[in-house]
Amino acid sequence: MTVSLGYLLPTRERIMVGVHDTGPILALADRAEALGLDAVWIGDSLLAKPRHEPLALIAAIAGRTRRIRMGTAVLLPMLRNPVLLAHQAATIDQISEGRMILGLGTARDIPAIRGEFTAAGVPFDKRIGRMMEQVRLMRALWAGGPVDWDGLWTVRGAELAPRPFTPGGPPIWGGGAAPGALRRAGRSFQGWFPSGPGGPAEWGACWQQVQAHAAEAGRDPAEVTGAAYVTVGVHDDRARAEAMLDGYLERYYLQPAARIRAQQYCFAGSRAAVTGWLHGFFAAGAGHLSVRFTGGEDERQMETLAAMREALA
Question: How confident is the model at residue 1 (pLDDT cuts 50, 70, 90)?
Fold first, then answer.
């Protein structure tokens, strides 16, 4: 069983308490690498959940680390021009020498997210078709050579430079657990990267569908990475861990914790209990887990995650 664990950097949490400087976040990425973690992840939101812009931070992390991978969990590509996004991703892939993962999401249908689409001048409806055209256009540009494109965007004889460090461009992981998301991951992406609902058993059942879609599309299912974005509360006192998790979810989403727990992979308990829960994902076939802790004391949480990684390995 391959064990790969990443840490979600607290860009949203820092903004929520009025901390806007980036130095401490970059230092956390350095610490994650020193502890032997496999990746650091950064979320994306324009106005719905204000936070640091993820591609800018990933470029900064790429320039000061040497081993750890870094990715978006997850980026909303529809808010960006795909030619510009392809250029940014290719440049960051060069800076990182192939350590970048582009996690993409389709956005939840809630008023705040519709509002940021409006603010960006992008229609919310038909956003999935828009995203898939963006992916195809970016991959055409990453392949090298002149590109002509007629669609939502018009490109004539354009050749993108620099080319990505990774042949064909950085790996794209698609989020979501709806039937369409499973098909897209199996047929078109290099990874599947959902955030719920349920737990290891539900993830595993969906993962089997992703692999089946890959095989139906003529792909080797082994070429698709199974991943998950999970949220955990760790404390020796189970009741305290549950309260920490519930409080975090309610502050972060401004919704009842039970509602968020029903939508996302969440678990609270002792370090041993959480480690056992994470093991369930790997036993079901996961290749990587991005772990979000319940906020605060990030260095201690990273040390906890590193200890869990050692135990799992």
Answer: low
